[in-house]
TrEMBL record:
GO biological process: secondary metabolite biosynthetic process
Domain of life: Eukaryota
InterPro entries registered for this protein in UniProt: FAD/NAD-bd_sf (IPR036188), GMC_OxRdtase (IPR012132), GMC_OxRdtase_N (IPR000172), GMC_OxRtase_C (IPR007867)
Entry cofactors: FAD
Sequence similarity: Belongs to the GMC oxidoreductase family.
Protein's organism: Parathielavia hyrcaniae
Protein name: GMC oxidoreductase
Keyword Flavoprotein: yes
Length: 641
C-alpha cells in the first residue's frame, strides 16, 4: 500500500470506528470478554502505544484499553478555517483544571488542559514535537543514585534514545522547502517506521527570520539537529503532522486506527476506571481487579485481569486512581477514609510543569513582509488560497505550520553571569538540615523518603545547571508580528506541587496545588531569564525596527523588587506539560515505581505515562510520552516472553 493511501485509510478508519459493526471498540460491559491478559487504563499517548505493541507481540493474549473519552476527529492546532492561533471549531473534548491559588505567585492559579479523547493529549496539543537534551534523561538516572545505577534497565539518554527513534517516522522536507527556510536536520536521530509522523512545515511567516537573526546577535548558535541529544542554541523543531496530508498525527491514528482489525485488541470507551482492587492483598496476589464505572448509567463492574494492569491515565488521573485504590500517602488516605493498601507518599506528589513570564514589545518603524498572520483575517483571497493549498496533495501553505517550528534553548551559564551563585544556593538548600523539607508541601515535609528524594533532585539539578550544554530556558516563536513577545519557559522548576483526590467528590477532578514559586530559587532563575530575554531589544536588528518595550519595561527591570513582582504576577503557571506525580525513583527516595515501572508493593501493576518522569524534561512532553510507552511495552514484552 502506498504512503498516501495508508494515510487516507487511517483517517477513514478512525472516523468510522464508532459505527463499524465489527469494530473492536466497546461501549458496555456485555461486549467484553470474561477476562483479559493485559488491561491498559487510559487511551492516551503512552497507553495506546503500550496497547499496540503488546497486542502485536502476543497475538494469543488479549488486551483491553479503558478510556473515559470517546473517538473524535482531531484537527491540527491551526487547521482551516481558523485564523492564526484562533480556537479550532468543535475541538475534541478536553479536561480543564484550575489549581488552587499560588500564594508565592500573587495567588494566581494554573490553568491546565488535557485531552479527554482517544489519543489523549496527542490529539489536542500544540504539535510541537521536540525531545529533551541528553542531559535531561541522564538526570533521570542520576536521581536514582547507586540503586538505579546498578539496574540493568536504564532510563538515561542511551537507554531511551532507541525508543525515541522507534516511536516516530520523520520525513525530510523537500530540497526546495529546505533551501527556502534553511531547515537543517540529521536523519540519524530518527529511523522509525511507526505510523506516528513528524515533519517540517512547508511554510513560515514572512517575519519568522527576525528573531532568528536576533538570537544570533545575542550569541546563540544554530544546532543542525536538536533531537539527537545536543540542544543548546537555536533549534528547528518538527511538528507531529503527516507530511503529505498536513493533518495532525496522533496516537489514536498511529496506535489504534492503523492497526485495526486486530482480534485480541479491545477498546472500551466512555468508562471511568475507579480503582484497582486487591481482594486478597497486593504483595503476593496480583494482578488486581479493575473497577470500572459506566458514564452512561453509573453501573460499576470489575474487569478480571490474568496478566498485568498498566495505568496510563496521565499526570493528574494516574495518581487519582492510585489514591482511590488505597495506594498513596498513608496520612492522606486516612483523612479520606480509604483503607491503606500500600503506603507510597510519592503518589500525587512531586508535581512539576513549565511556566514563566513574557517579555513584550512593539515596533516603531514600519516593516512589510509577505505573508503575515493578519492576512488570513483580512484578506479573503489569501485565506481561500491557503485553504486550497492545505487541501492539496501534498499539503502546503500557511496551514501546515501548526504552532511553529522554531525555538531557542539556553543554559544557565550562557544566560546569566550569576549562574554560580544560583547553583550554590540550590546546593545550600539541599545540604542545610531541614531547609529543603521546608519547601515541600506540608503533608510530606516529615516523610524521610520524600525529603531524601527532593534533596537528590536538587543536587542533580545543581550539577546539571552548571553544564553550559544543559538548557534551562526555552523560548519558542513563529512570528514577530506586533505586539511581539518572547516567553520564558522555566524548563526545570525546583518547586513541587501535589495532586490529591477531591474528598468532597472522589470521582470528580482532583485538587491541584501547583505551589509555583515555593522554592525561591525558581524566582532567581526567572529573573535571570527575563533579563536575558530583554536583551533582544538591544540587538542591531531590533533597533533597526525601532523595538519599543511594553513589559516589563526599563523602569521595572532596573528595580529588583519591581521585576520580582512582575515575575510573580505575570507568569503563566502552566504551559500544559504536567508530570512526575508517580515518579520513577527508589522507594527510599519517595519513588512510586522502579525502573521496570512496577508500582512498589503492588503485584501486577505498572504505570506508563509522563507521571513516571522523576524530573521535568526540557522540552514539550509529547515525544517523551511516546518513548515512555515504547520502552514500557518492551519491558513488559521481555518480562512475559
Amino acid at each position: 500500500m502506498g504512503f498516501l493511501s495508508a494515510a487516507i485509510l487511517s483517517v477513514a478508519a478512525l472516523a468510522t470506528a464508532a459505527s463499524v459493526p465489527n469494530s473492536k471498540m466497546k461501549r458496555q460491559v456485555s461486549q467484553l470478554r470474561s477476562d483479559y491478559d493485559f488491561v491498559i487504563v487510559g487511551a492516551g499517548t503512552s497507553g495506546l502505544t503500550v496497547a499496540d505493541r503488546l497486542s502485536a507481540a502476543f497475538p494469543s493474549k488479549t488486551v483491553l484499553v479503558i478510556e473515559y473519552g470517546n473517538i473524535h476527529f482531531a484537527p491540527g492546532v491551526f487547521d482551516p478555517p481558523t485564523n492564526w492561533m484562533e480556537g479550532i471549531p468543535n475541538p475534541p473534548p478536553s479536561w480543564t483544571f484550575s489549581s488552587l491559588p499560588n500564594p508565592d505567585m500573587n495567588n494566581q492559579t494554573a490553568f491546565v488542559m488535557a485531552g479527554q479523547v482517544v489519543g489523549g493529549s496527542s490529539a489536542t496539543n500544540g504539535q510541537f514535537f521536540d525531545r529533551g537534551s541528553r542531559f535531561d534523561y541522564d538526570a533521570w538516572l542520576d536521581v536514582g543514585g547507586l540503586e538505579f545505577a546498578a539496574k540493568s534497565i536504564k532510563w538515561d539518554w542511551n537507554g531511551i534514545l532507541p525508543y525515541f527513534k522507534k516511536s516516530v517516522t520523520f520525513t525530510e522536507p523537500s530540497q526546495a522547502v529546505a533551501q527556502q527556510y534553511n531547515y537543517t536536520w540529521d536523519v540519524s536521530a530518527y529511523g522509525g517506521t511507526t505510523p506516528i509522523y513528524s515533519s517540517y512545515a512547508t511554510f513560515q511567516w514572512g517575519d519568522q527570520h527576525i528573531l532568528g537573526e536576533v538570537w544570533k546577535e545575542m550569541g546563540l548558535n544554530p544546532q543542525a539537529e536538536c533531537a539527537g541529544g545536543d540542544k543548546e542554541g537555536i533549534c528547528w523543531v518538527p511538528a507531529s503532522q503527516h507530511p503529505l496530508t498536513g493533518r495532525r498525527s496522533h496516537a489514536a491514528l498511529g496506535h489504534y486506527a492503523d492497526v485495526l482489525p486486530r482480534s485480541n485488541y479491545d477498546l472500551l470507551v466512555q468508562h471511568q476506571v475507579v480503582r484497582v482492587v486487591y481482594p486478597n492483598g497486593p504483595k503476593h496476589h496480583g494482578p488486581p481487579l479493575v473497577e470500572v464505572r459506566s458514564l452512561a448509567d453509573d453501573h460499576l463492574f470489575n474487569v478480571t485481569v490474568t496478566g498485568e494492569v498498566v495505568i496510563s491515565a496521565g499526570a493528574f488521573h494516574t495518581p487519582t486512581i492510585l489514591q482511590r485504590s488505597g495506594i498513596g500517602p498513608a496520612s492522606f488516605l486516612a483523612s479520606a477514609g480509604i483503607s491503606l493498601v500500600v503506603d507510597l507518599p510519592g503518589v500525587g506528589s512531586n508535581l512539576q510543569d513549565h511556566g514563566g513570564p513574557p517579555v513584550t514589545w512593539n515596533y516603531t518603524q514600519p516593516y512589510i513582509f509577505d505573508h503575515l498572520p493578519d492576512e488570513l483575517a483580512n484578506n479573503a483571497t489569501y485565506k481561500s488560497e491557503a485553504i486550497a493549498a492545505f487541501d492539496d496533495t501534498p499539503s502546503h501553505g500557511p496551514y501546515t505550520i501548526a504552532m511553529g517550528n522554531s525555538a531557542i534553548y539556553v543554559s544557565l551559564p550562557h544566560m546569566t553571569p550569576t549562574w554560580c551563585t544560583i547553583v550554590q544556593r540550590i546546593r545550600q538548600i539541599a545540604l542545610t538540615p531541614g531547609l529543603a523539607a521546608s519547601y515541600l508541601p506540608e503533608d510530606i515535609r516529615t516523610s524521610p523518603s520524600m525529603v531524601a528524594g527532593y534533596i537528590a533532585q536538587l543536587l542533580t539539578l545543581a550539577q546539571h545547571f552548571s553544564n553550559p550544554a544543559f538548557p534551562s530556558l526555552e523560548t519558542p516563536w513563529a512570528t514577530s508580528v506586533a505586539p511581539a513577545s518572547a516567553v520564558s519557559f522555566l524548563l526545570h522548576p525546583l518547586s513541587r506541587g501535589t495532586v490529591r483526590l477531591n474528598l468532597a467528590s472522589p470521582l470528580d477532578q482532583p485538587i491541584l496545588d501547583y505551589r509555583s514559586g515555593s522554592n525561591p530559587v525558581d524566582i532567581d532563575i526567572q529573573l535571570a531569564q527575563v533579563r536575558f530575554l530583554r536583551g533582544v531589544l538591544d540587538t542591531p536588528t531590533m533597533q533597526g525596527y525601532g523595538a519599543s518595550e511594553i513589559a516589563p519595561g526599563a523602569a521595572v527591570a532596573a528595580d529588583d523588587a519591581l521585576l520580582e513582582e512582575y515575575v510573580r504576577s505575570q507568569s503563566f503557571l502552566s504551559f500544559q506539560h504536567p508530570c512526575c506525580t508517580a515518579a520513577m525513583m527508589p522507594r527510599s527516595r519517595g519513588g512510586v515505581v522502579g525502573v521496570d515501572l512496577k508500582v512498589y508493593g503492588a503485584e501486577g501493576l505498572r504505570v506508563a505515562d509522563m507521571s513516571v518522569s522523576p524530573l521535568l524534561v526540557g522540552s514539550h512532553t509529547s515525544s517523551t510520552a511516546y518513548a515512555i510507552g515504547e520502552k514500557a511495552a518492551d519491558i513488559i514484552i521481555q518480562a512475559w516472553s
